Amino acid sequence: MHPLCLVVLSSATSCDEVFSRLVLPAVAHAGFDPFRGPAQPDRIALPEFALVDVTVTNADLQFALGIRAALRPDSTVYIAAANSLSAPPEGTIIYLPGDPASSVPELNKRLNELKRHRPRQLAFHALEQFGDIARLKTDVFRDRIAYDQDLKARLAQARRGPHVRQALAEVENSIDLATADYGAIVDLMLSYRGVKAWNEMISLVERMPYDLARTTLVQEQLAFAVNRKGDWNDAERILTAVIESRGPSSETNSLLGRVYKDRWDETKDPAWLDRAIETYLQGFEADWRDAYPGINAVSLMELRNPPDERRHKLLPLVHYAVVRRLASSKPDYWDYATLLELAVLASDEAGARDAVGKALAAVREVWEPETTLKTLDRMAEARNARGGAEGWLNGVRGELKAKVASFSK
Q1: Which region holds residue 159: left if phi is over 0, alpha if psi is between -120 and 50, else beta?
Q2: What is the count of structural domains for the chain?
Q3: Average pLDDT over residues 104-129
């Protein structure tokens, strides 16, 4: 698999001629897959390599290139026409507009040097910098990261097949983790997560390039898999280290809260329940826009004996957060699952039935409805212990159970 190289050409030159006679032969011979695209600030830092024509620059291009230089230093080659109207950066390769092919050897040499000194700044820093809500970076990953389209298609096909784990393993065996595009490696990791292949996720992280493995996104997903395997001590260690180095976030704290919640499930020690509540609260306070840690906090408050009275003040804040996200962007499963849990907490049967239908229509992976079902099961158990849960809640739980069962057919 060849690494991708973003090509940004100047409107001041004959773009097609420069691309076909200079860029394409040099890039292809150096072992890259070129793709042309705009220099948008939220996308230019994502590809591992870039080739940019700076014959004419403007404020927008300079801003975008500044972002790339900060996040991916030493990963960009600049070219410019001999009649450039701008002062090109040092080291820019100058080509003749009438004979761009004459600069192919020089450009090819520069690209080969770049490839030999493969840059180690990662696209995932860009996701963390420019994402909306930290928790959503894994959800938007495949839309935001550009990498080898053939490999992306093979992973998508593997996820749809009847023997997903085997198909994903075959894809993994066909690539060299030492040289593969980082986007492909993370997409593979998230594909394993989708089929609950925890051992494969952990093994992949252990074998991927060190700097990629140390990114926040990968460390969070590693902890997720480790916790699902039952090693909560190691999961706690990983997530605590991330929080210590990067600070609290809605995603990291939600994952750590889940570790403590699972520990409470196992031991029934209320100290773990309280620890989970406080960890989720810290995540919600880190980003009020993200309702996910907030709904987990108030749901667990409902399960305490007696229930935590702070939930009454938090419920409107959580509801506002999810309503604002529903109004401002494309909703996902967790948005509707949050509305469902809020409706159950408020004993709103109509709201719960409406939300569960929308949530089930947005399911992507089996562990999503499994997680919500487990939460509602806990609520029903707690309410039964205090005098009885509403009868309609059984129907809502039944719909979630049917969805979970459909993944095994």
Answers
A1: alpha
A2: 2
A3: 70
